[in-house]
Fold this protein.
Amino acid sequence: MKKSIVTALGLALALGGYASLAVSELASLRGAQDLTEESKVPAMKQYRKDGEVFDREYVQQPPLIPHKIEGYQINRKFNKCLSCHSWANYKEAGATKISQTHFEDRDKNVLANVSARRYFCTQCHVPQVNAKPLVDNTFEPVRALTGH
């Protein structure tokens, strides 16, 4: 019994030393700033003005959202996007109607309502932002697709 307690204590001390080593290598997004210091508020993302559309960055990229969506409710009972982009409302709202492909199940059967796998718009579509890309992109579309 004593031997197992000593072994457990030794293991705990060894792991504790390893954990403290790992923690000392971590870096916070706020940098070396202490939690007690007042932090600078990060700059807000600069969204493009409504209607100004970015070109797509790769073939089959879902269209970007050309407006802010902060506060939009999208859950299994309600989807704010559909109040403007549904086939019933898009003309009156002056919005792009959602694609026919959003009304197909994975077996290409046409549905009366938006497919459950396409219902949560922000799984694929994101607001376009004036932000530096996280990685370089040298994509150029096939000339046949660009009309050049």
